[in-house]
Amino acid sequence: MPATSRPKKIVVAINPSASFGSTRDVGPAVVQTLRAMGHEVTSLTEPDFEQLTASARAAVQKRPDALVVVGGDGMVNLGTNLVVNTKVPLGIIPSGTGNDMARGLGIPHDDVEAAIRALDAALAEPPRVIDAGRIRWTDADTGEAGERWFACALSAGFDAIVNERANGMRHPKGPSRYILAMLAELAVLRPLRYRLELDGEQVDTKAVLVALGNAQSFGGGMKVTPDAILDDGLFDVLIVEPLSRINFLRIFPRVFKGEHVGHPKVRIRRAKRVRIACDDPIVAYGDGERIAPLPLDVDLVPGVLRVLAPPA
User: Which three-class secondary structure string do you get for the chain?
Assistant: First the structure.
């Protein structure tokens, strides 16, 4: 018997990239299982993200009981940008490469059936309310303003450069692609000069890595901001000051347990509003998705995202 007290109207958005490969059956299985549980399910399968976004936006405007995304953190980002500041909660069935937002929310990230059961249970309870990051920028060529939201993390240093390389790689699949991209970029590692503003305080520094964490991890379980809390109203701002390649490699294994924060070259500050600028042409990534070149203005907005997840 399903955990929910009554059937729900659910929109399920399936990652277009999952129409092939080992995850191609996950979306249809999710839809079939939720229908078997008694829910009224609208399944969205589109050939690309642009069309999926348009279809999902139209569906959310009809105020379903939930928007459920099937995929990785990129799908979470798509869903976040559609339901932020609405009463429609976001459900996550993780089947992507990193699944870091699911990890941060306590959603089973390596067992689809367990994730569906957790979703069904969460549908019977009030949604969890968390913060979300809002990114704003001005296009240097057109002068047009841009805005985008993220739920998990924003990267704007070596980590973002690695994302650029990893997204251009076709093989291998899974988290190992990120690690291989990191090793390739490590060969040309150099510090960059940043001009940061943390709640109005100017911080001029050289760094190899700058990241803003709303959740604890990115890159498939790397706990870059291990003490970040999803509903405390603050970013954990990670700054890794210049260090050698050897020292970087020594620190890296400790990131998966969040033990890197004790290193003297690692600083974590907390702030609600952050401006990030850099002398180099760095492109920032939010939830693993390419956002825009620096400079960016980022603020954490409390309580604007409802999610279907276990209690904190």
Answer: CCCCCCCCEEEEEECHHHHCCCCCCHHHHHHHHHHHCCCEEEEECCCCHHHHHHHHHHHHCCCCCEEEEEECHHHHHHHHHHHCCCCCCEEEEECCCCCHHHHHHCCCCCCHHHHHHHHHHHHCCCCEEEEEEEEEEECCCCCCEEEEEECCEEECCHHHHHHHHHHCCCCCCCCHHHHHHHHHHHCCCCCEEEEEEECCEEEEEEECEEEEECCCCECCCECCCCCCCCCCCCEEEEEECCCCHHHHHHHHHHHCCCHHHHCCCEEEEEECEEEEEECCCCEEEECCEEEEECCEEEEEEEEEEEECCCCC
